[in-house]
Amino acid sequence: MFNKKIVIFLLLIFSSVKYSSAQCAMCKAVVENGDVAMAEGVNNGISYLMVFPYLLIGALFYALYRYRKQTKN
Asked: What global pTM score does this model have?
């Protein structure tokens, strides 16, 4: 039951990434000159860099979960 909720939550998070805009105020000011390709590149780069901290924290929690599960047995 708990794992099913986590999977559904993660699917919703990852499916909404395509529609989210990842520009901060400074980045938006730089790409407002009308160059769409450059703006998309900046958005993709920011989204790409945002993923890694979440992956690292997820891996840490998974390792802690596995460690605690092994110590209980």
From this structure: 0.48
